[in-house]
Amino acid sequence: MITASGGGHTGYAVALAQRLVGRAEMLFLVPEGDRWSESKVGRFGRVVFTTKARGPRDPLWRAVPGLLRAGWQSLRRVPRSYDVFVSSGSNHSVPPALAARLKGLRVVNIESSVRFTRPSMSARVLKPFSHLTVLQWPEQEEILPGGVVVGPLYEEPEYEPRDEGYILVTGGTYGHKQLFDLVDRLGLENVVLQTGRVDPKPYRERHPEWRVFDFDPDFARWIAGASMVVSHLGKTVIDAALTYRKPVVIAPNPEWRLTAGWRDAEILAEKLNAVLLKELEPGALEEAVEEAKHRRPPVYEDGARRLAEMLLEGA
C-alpha cells in the first residue's frame, strides 16, 4: 500500500511504483477529489480515497475534524492483506499509516526531498510508529536520526528529453500566484504556464501566445520539452533536474505554511546546481533565468530503485 497524497507526495508514489510494477501488487490511497493523483497512480494498481485534512495554506485548527474523519475511513479502508504500508508524506498519510500499524503491516515513512533543517510534521509524527524511515539526502540524518538514506526519489522518464524552446513555469498543485504575476510582467513570449488551483483565465487572455492550463495528467511531456523549468520548492524541480536533466530556477512560495524554509531552498538549489530566486522581482527573475541557462544538474543514485529493492527484500 502506498499513499499518493497529492503534488510531490504523489510523485514519490509514482517513482516507487515505476520500480515495483510487475513485481508487487499495489494499492494506492489518494485524497478525495484528487483526480490528478488518481490518474498518475491508477495505471499501477487499485485506488481508494480518504480525507486530506489540511492544505499548505490552512491553519492547524482546520485539520482536526478532517483527521477524525480520515481516521475512521482508514480503519475501514486499510486492509490487512498487504505486507507493507508506505507513507509518501503529508497529513493525508498519517491516519492510514497508524491504521496500517494497528493491523500489523510494516510501516515505511518517506521524508520529503526538500527538508534539510527540520523534519516535516508527518515524518516526525510517524517516526515512532515506523519500521523504516526513508531519507533522501545524508543531511537528513541530523533531523531524523536512525533513518536510512536511499538517495533522491525521482520519476523515470516517460519521454526523451528535448528542447522545444519554451520556459515551463509551474507552481504545483496549489499554484504560485506571485510567481505567475511576476512572469506575466516580463513580456516573455515562449512560456508554458501550469497554474494549478490558480485561475488560468487571466494569463491566457493576456498572453494568447502562451500555452496556459491548470492541470495536465501528462505533465511530464511539458518538462521533457522545456528549455528550462521555473517552479516552487517542491518535487517538480527534482524531476526536472534529475529525470529530464533540465536547468532549474527555484522560486519558494511565501504563502505556504507547511513547506520547508529558506535555508532548505538554498541547500536544495546547491544539490541540484539550480538557481534560487531570492526576490520576487522582475529583474531578479530575469537574472536567474539567464544564469540557469549555463547550469547543468548533477547525477545521483536512483533512490526509488534502491527503496523498491529494500521493500521487496523485506527491509
Would you give an account of this structure?
The protein has helices at 7-20, 35-41, 63-77, 94-102, 121-126, 177-186, 201-206, 220-225, 235-243, 262-272, 282-292, 303-312, and strands spanning 2-3, 27-31, 46-50, 84-87, 106-110, 132-135, 148-149, 167-170, 191-194, 211-213, 228-231, 248-250, 275-276. The strands form 3 sheets. It has a 6-stranded parallel β-sheet, with helices on both faces. It folds into 2 domains: 2-152 and 303-312, 3-Layer(aba) Sandwich (Rossmann fold), CATH 3.40.50.2000; 167-292, Rossmann fold (3-Layer(aba) Sandwich), CATH 3.40.50. 36% of the residues lie in helices and 15% in strands. It is α/β, with parallel strands linked by helices and 315 residues long. It has 12 helices and 13 strands.
- The CATH topology of the largest domain is Rossmann fold
| Mean pLDDT metric | 93
What's the total number of strands?
13
Main sheet: strands, sense, barrel: 6 strands, parallel
Helix/strand-derived category reads: alpha/beta
Helix content: 25-40%
Oligomer: single chain
CATH architecture identity of the largest domain? 3-Layer(aba) Sandwich
CATH class of the largest domain: Alpha Beta
